[in-house]
Amino acid sequence: MPRNNQQGPRKVASSLLPHNSDAERAVLGSALLSRNAALNVLSSLNEDDFFEGKHRIIFRAMMNLFEKKVPIDSLTVTEELINIKELENVGGVEYLKVCSDSMVALSNLEFYINIVNDQSVLRKMLTTIRNIDEAYMSRDIDNVNDFIIKAENDFKESIERRKISGFKTTGDVAKIVKNEIDEMVAQAKNSDNKDIIGLTTGYPRLNKLTQGFQPEQMIIIAGRPGLGKTALALNFAYKASRFHDVPVAIFSLEMSSDLLVRRLIACEACVDLTKISTGQLSDSERMKVASAISTVANTKIFIDDSPGLKLTDIVAKAKKLQAANPDLGMVIIDYLGLIQLTSKGKGADSRQEEVRKITLALKDLSRELKVPVIVLSQLSRDVEKRDSKRPMLSDLRDSGSIEQDADIVMLLYREDYYDKTSKKGQNLAGGNKTPANMSGDERLQMSQAQKTEAQLADIPASASYVEVNVAKNRNGQTGKAALFFYKAYGRFDKPSQEWEENMNAITAETFD
Predict the structure, then answer these.
(1) Are residues 223 and 152 in the same domain?
(2) Quick one: which of 335, 438, 354, 446 has its CA closest to 399?
(3) Is there a single domain that holds both residue 148 and residue 230?
(4) pTM of the model
(5) How crowded is residue 324: how many other Cβ atoms within 10 Å of its Cβ?
(6) Positive/negative CA dihedral, 454, 458, 463, 469
(7) CATH of residue 367
(8) Within a domain: residue 175?
(9) pLDDT the model gives residue 295
(10) Is residue 401 a part of any domain in this protein?
(11) pLDDT computed for residue 293 by the predictor
């Protein structure tokens, strides 16, 4: 559909775009004079949230110092501006003093940050509207639907809140989830802690191997996609928060906070997540869910589900959370493969080099915060090419630095994930041979496989057998722990001691 271009695009001076220079000076001045203020500003704003060019440059210098782990103050920022040859462009040391004189009390800083952020969002929104208008007035539109869809997507993107949004407590999210579940139900009608010195894993065998999750440890939980890594990490977070009454931070780069809290509710209630999501709940299930919502809401779990988080975002926000919650007990990141490096222009780096930088930074974070940092990671496809699907450290994806930097590496293996239980005797014994045609080793393998199959038959019908292999433990034992995984509601439970001892004996006999 051709457009008549008689009026032509309307240009608006950029100086007329909304901004608040006083608020920008206030947040920068506060960051110059207070470490906590600097963490708050750097974790809440982006360079392009500032309207004035000199304010963008000052913020960039602060971010450079933060990435270099250099304290941020007037002297260091001045030195950095000299190094990047921008000191004169911001008005020299005199203007930095003007900013410092504009600082506000830490208790009021959030208010000024919100002003800067709101003005930034408003500028982006208005600029997008003007660009849409200009495109409509100056171009031929072949397909109106395509034009509308693109305009709609551009507008939504322009008004998205800064991805460094605040954490959401499980209590806040649980209230929303409760209302949603109540609505869907209406529509449907029409411890083991004595032997540990860290945070409990919640499982006796893992506690015995690890002595619990220790401060300054980086723990890797690795497995193939869909095997249960996120569910196990949630179980760890939930048990740590409940048993130790400490805050736990979860950076979820793949799953929304709403879904994570639903999973926690399903886990606590032992009710199928699908039923909760669709509202198809019986009276007894509704009572269980209501009780679970109350329990989950009282845990100190903080979730940040901002997509596309960069490494520096995670570091800054974790430090900011600990500043507000000094008893922070654990940080969980789901997952390693989605973390982006902050620095621009690094496209030439290999993924292995990127992962090396990320794991080093996360290990440093665990040491600085003095809390365990649990990082989820995927295993390479190589594990699926072997006859035995049990993972090894060499299966860690992307880089050997994961193994090198981690204090503990847990490799997950789920028997029914590969659907091999019923075929194990045949696979280990060498095809369809009969016992009479087998060698002694093959007959032994068949006997061991039959023992495994019998042992696996002795678990609850709704559960899966998961083997957690503590393949690396820098300061403790390595070994395997068996868990029962109830996938329908994302819950991991310990088997009986007798069952686990029998399974460990068979596993060691077969594979060691």
Answers:
(1) no
(2) 354
(3) no
(4) 0.76
(5) 12
(6) negative
(7) 3.40.50.300
(8) no
(9) 92
(10) yes
(11) 93
DSSP state letters, 249-297 = EEEESSS-HHHHHHHHHHHHHT--HHHHHHT---HHHHHHHHHHHHHHH
Q: For 207-249, give the DSSP string.
A: HHHHSSBPTT-EEEEEE-TTSSHHHHHHHHHHHHHHHH---EE
- Would you call 302 helix, strand, or coil by DSSP? strand
Confidence (pLDDT) at 345: 46
Q: Is residue 490 part of a domain?
A: no
| Integer angstrom CA distances of residue 199 from 183, 313, 325, 492 | 37, 25, 17, 17
Q: What CATH number does residue 149 fall under?
A: 1.10.860.10
Structure tokens at 90: 């911001």
Say how many domains are in the chain.
Answer: 2
Whether residue 205 sits in one domain with residue 116: no
Q: Compute the distance between CA of residue 412 and CA of residue 176 in angstroms, rounded to an integer.
A: 33
Could you tell me if 259 and 356 lie in one domain?
yes
Q: What is the pLDDT of residue 428?
A: 40
Other CB atoms within a 10 A radius of the CB of residue 351 amount to 11
**Residue 372 pLDDT:** 96
Which residue, 506, 505, 500, 498, is CA-closest to 449? 506
Q: Are residues 381 and 261 in the same domain?
A: yes
Q: Which domain range does residue 119 map to?
A: 14-159
Both 71 and 147 in one domain: the answer is yes
What is the distance between the alpha carbons of residues 58 and 88, in angstroms, rounded to a whole number? Answer: 11
348: tokens are 């030439």
Structure tokens at 257: 């906070």
C-alpha 124/C-alpha 130 separation (Å) is: 10
Are 198 and 154 in the same domain? no
- pLDDT score, position 137: 86
Peptide bond into 335 cis (omega under 30): yes
Torsion angle, CA of 405/411/417/421, rounded to 10 degrees?
Answer: 150
410, 425, 449 - which closes a domain: 410
Contact 483, 468 (CB under 8 A): yes
Across the chain, which has 512 residues, the per-10-residue mean pLDDT values are: 45 71 95 92 90 95 92 94 95 94 91 92 89 84 76 74 64 76 68 67 90 92 91 94 92 92 94 90 92 92 89 89 92 90 57 86 92 93 79 79 89 78 40 53 54 60 86 90 90 81 65 44
Residue with tokens 């032997």: 195
472 forms bridges with which residues in the sheet? 409
| Rounded (5°) CA angle 360-364-367 | 145
8 Å CB contact between 279 and 329: no
Per-residue model confidence (pLDDT) at position 433: 53
Question: Tens digit of pLDDT for each residue in 467-486?
Answer: 999 999 998 889 988 898 99
Identify the domain boundary among 387, 410, 433.
410
Both 231 and 108 in a single domain?
A: no
448 domain-assigned: no
Across 294-314, b (16+ Cβ under 10 Å) vs e yields ebbbebbbbbbbbeebbbbbb
